[in-house]
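Dear support,

We are seeing what looks like truncated structure output for some complexes. This example has two components. We would appreciate it if you could run it in full and send us the complete token output so we can diff it against ours.
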Amino acid sequence: MQSESGGSSWPGQVTLRRLADGREIRYYDDRVTESRVHAAADTRPLPEPPHAGELRFDVLTGEWVTVAGHRMNRTFLPSAADCPLDPTRDPARPTEVPDGDYDVVVFANRFPSYAPDVVGPADAGHPEVLGPPDRPAVGHCDVIVFSSDHAASIVDLSAARLRTIVEAWAQRTAELSADPAVAEVFVFENHGEEIGVTLSHPHGQVYAYPFLPPRSAQLIERARRYRQATGGNLLRDVLTAELEDGRRVVLRGEHFSAYVPRAARWPVEVHLAPHRDVPDLAALDDAERAELGGLYQELLRRVNRFHPGIEHVPYISGWHQAPTGGDRELGRLHLQLFSLLRAPGKLKYLAGSESGMGAWVNDTTPERIADRLREVGA
Amino acid sequence: MQSESGGSSWPGQVTLRRLADGREIRYYDDRVTESRVHAAADTRPLPEPPHAGELRFDVLTGEWVTVAGHRMNRTFLPSAADCPLDPTRDPARPTEVPDGDYDVVVFANRFPSYAPDVVGPADAGHPEVLGPPDRPAVGHCDVIVFSSDHAASIVDLSAARLRTIVEAWAQRTAELSADPAVAEVFVFENHGEEIGVTLSHPHGQVYAYPFLPPRSAQLIERARRYRQATGGNLLRDVLTAELEDGRRVVLRGEHFSAYVPRAARWPVEVHLAPHRDVPDLAALDDAERAELGGLYQELLRRVNRFHPGIEHVPYISGWHQAPTGGDRELGRLHLQLFSLLRAPGKLKYLAGSESGMGAWVNDTTPERIADRLREVGA
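Here is the complete output from our reference environment:
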């Protein structure tokens, strides 16, 4: 299946194929090019895709924990020659991407935390009075590869490529949201060996959760109470307050602005929010999609320059989107971008207070973070 | 001030002194020994103790975040010769402990996240409609040193020493709970360079929080709903269910039992709970205090043996206690002991799903963790 961009101004094309074990793979080309049919077949003798794990209810916190025992043996820091995200340049050494070239490619994770069509757990577990029974970890885990060049960095990719990446984020958000088993779609990126990233090839991920993740559940509850008390939208009013205050604003675009939240938890943290109320990436219009990629790159560049003397800062970025089902009007798209690096060679570890109690202590101030992110601007 | 143990069977004594900047230091001797007066003065020209930071309300989660900018420059992995937890053996090189010898010593952290008598933050911050104003980070942060021997390990200390450590935990819990500014006392230990522990000398910590930490707030809310629905005590009924089920039970003592929680989040995790309903360490009776130290050591020994081929496993342990004010009857003492090490050389990093969404994925099963913790038992 190949489709053009329809009414969107994105000049690219999408081609849907399947891997040997039935997983879907989508090629997103920066431009419509009839010769790029991505027809190469996956010749590997793959076993059927692994079953996902199960969801167990933590009765002490009221949160679902995903138990995915099959992930223990996943690929860990392979050598560059064995990178599974490279295109298949040599048929004798097939990778996860059958074609010999691509711009952006998205496929279902081979070691997923959540997978479609899984069977239920065998064991109901604890007495029902303590909490709901176990559930299968139904959902989706995508890998999204930003370039066929193993050594590329997202900050150096072309504007056209960033536009394609934004398009893939938006389209996958729409497609995964259509699955009634999915409660929220999380588009995110883990970057840097320092935080345990097992593949250095530039890539991100998409998790489509079968439950509202704890942070989202908290946020939706806070937004609900705020709406009841004031009639307002919490996330919009936070953005407005930050733009009026100005002390923690990092950049102001035409359609998005970035600020350090006034209760930042991490040594480096910045949020990016659209000026217009939109629930998710799929709801962004053409002008917003066109601006977004450049702003994201600019924020990543500044994070890389944050600590003098080092060039690459490990980071985590995640797009918080509205729930796909109920309470959709209480959510509002925003990016959370943060780093655990508090100084060159010094990571912020989550120790007893954070890991055991959920009580964060930040060793710097949000205002200092914002000052530095402005100072290292272009 | 020196006091004996009163009606308790603990055979030791406590001596209270002050450091040069006014911070309290308490010497806990394993036995009453009249000659040990710990009278050595702190001769350092210390500046006044640092002010604590401030609490900022995170309007997106409803949680307090502690902003403690002064901690950025705290002591980080000093060489063994400069260890601030050693006794002062050479007056020319004074440490945090003025006396030349001690058994267990507890003193207020020089770089605290929470401190008593702090002034309020200068800036109220955000529009009041978004959340409560900033508060000073009032509270207490203790360091508790388990041995004067820099190279000692808690698993090798004598039974008498463990009894003294339990006594210090219990007494400090009682003393800090008496401060009306304190909402919960957290006794914990961060162990291992792999998780960023800045001092290798065997020690633990106590945080007396001025707010109910997020995990406790969740637990109390869950316990409240459970009591309303069933009339039962959630934590006691979880213990009972685990002991009846048996699959995840690691050890059964006379007064305490240990089990892996059925929604364990970490690659190694075990909880230890008293058989009797007690709110906190201060409420343990003599028989319970006498048994506790040995069981704690036994659990730490098994955690150290968890992964074949390595001798020391980094861990975090924390005592969850009842709130000091309201809802005290909903809390129940339990220890959470866990490690981020999922295999030799492989840490579990908290990446996008955990850090950004609060959604934990465990790559092993609680039953496998329990099997291993039983297998490596004495």
